[in-house]
Amino acid sequence: MTKADNMLSILWMLRSGRRKTAKQLAEALDIHVRTVYRCIDSLCASGVPIIAESGPHGGYTILSRFADSPLVFDAEEQKGLVHAAIFAKEAGYPHSDALERATDKLKRYANDDQLTALERHAPGLSVIGLPIGGAYRAYLQSLEEAAGQGRRLEMDYDKGRGEPSPSRLFDPYGIVYWKGQWYAVGHCGFRGEVRSFRVDRIRGLRQTEGRFDRPASFSAKDYLLGQLLRDSADQADWETVRIHSQEQVLDELCRHWLFGHALIERQPESATFKMERSTLSTYVPYFLMPYGTALRIESALLVRRMREAGARLLAHYENMMTLGDEGEGN
């Protein structure tokens, strides 16, 4: 038997409420007494409240409140854990490997009926997530661990605009998963304020000797949403954009982070967004191009930017055709 099997067997025997000596446990499991001691130590380290009493009538017992608590999960709880592990893995959850190990243990100790049910339900949930590379996952793990330990990091970050970004000290208060992206929220030493960073743009993380305390009652989720959904005091920086199209097209559009957080009104065949003018001049036109003529846009600014972006694209490929024709002529 593996150590995990021995630990579980010892736990079941102690849950009976009867005091057991190490010798009795060893004989029942056909293992050495020293193995029993190691298993008891591991169970205590994992939080099981085992009480050791010495003397002629001594032995091991377990606190009644723990013995009375359910050790096994019902069918719905088992299904929920398996589905949660699937979702977490595809979302890039940094400790999905640990979740998989936990569900493997769940299946290992399930009876035939439970195992059949789990195998039947597991394929019922699928998640299409962004590919999570090794470096990405390692950064998520480092950020989560540093947030839990209050450890300051040094971070290299790519702003995504081709601009070099200096290394900065970063106190990670938490990581947030939102609309297919992971964000790190914390105090930025370079800016001297709380900031949010996309984890996929991190290019390097290094531990430092510095420590920090997360501000009391700080919520990384609330901060990130406040940044993404903030209202600007200067209304000139914002533009109201109404887009008409088929309902399925608008559903797809609203699921994207660029539009989802900016939605202010939704009708079956139209969606109204409040968006920063800077994004309308940069990201939005190129994002909307693949939709072709499926969209009807009510925003003079965005229509003008779409026309300008289309003209640049047309000129680019016309130039390529000209160069190609010249090459064929030679």
The H-and-E topology, N to C, reads as HHHEEHHHHHEEEEEHEHHEEHHEH
Count up the helices: 14
CATH topology (fold) name of the largest domain: SH3 type barrels
Query: What strand order characterises the main sheet?
Result: 6-5-4-3-7
Give the CATH class of the largest domain.
Mainly Beta
Organism: Cohnella hashimotonis
Protein name: WYL domain-containing protein
Domain Helix-turn-helix type: 8-60
Domain WYL: 139-206
Explain what the structure shows.
This protein has helices at 3-14, 22-29, 33-45, 64-67, 75-91, 96-108, 112-121, 134-149, 220-228, 247-255, 257-260, 277-280, 283-288, 300-329, and strands at 50-53, 59-62, 151-157, 168-178, 181-188, 193-198, 202-211, 238-244, 263-267, 270-276, 296-298. The model has no long low-confidence stretch (mean pLDDT 84). The strands form three sheets. It has a five-stranded antiparallel beta sheet with strand order 6-5-4-3-7. The chain is elongated and about 95 Å long. Helix 2 crosses helix 3, helix 5 (75-91) packs antiparallel against helix 6 (96-108) and helix 5 (75-91) packs across helix 7. Helices cover 47% and strands 22% of the residues. Strand 1 (50-53) and strand 2 form a beta hairpin. The protein has four domains: 3-67, Winged helix-like DNA-binding domain superfamily/Winged helix DNA-binding domain (Arc Repressor Mutant, subunit A), CATH 1.10.10; 75-124; 134-228, SH3 type barrels (Roll); 235-314, Alpha-Beta Plaits. It is an alpha+beta fold and 330 residues long. It comes from Cohnella hashimotonis. InterPro entries: CBASS_pafABC_assoc_protein, HTH_11, WH-like_DNA-bd_sf, WH_DNA-bd_sf, WYL_dom. Residues 139-206 form the WYL domain.
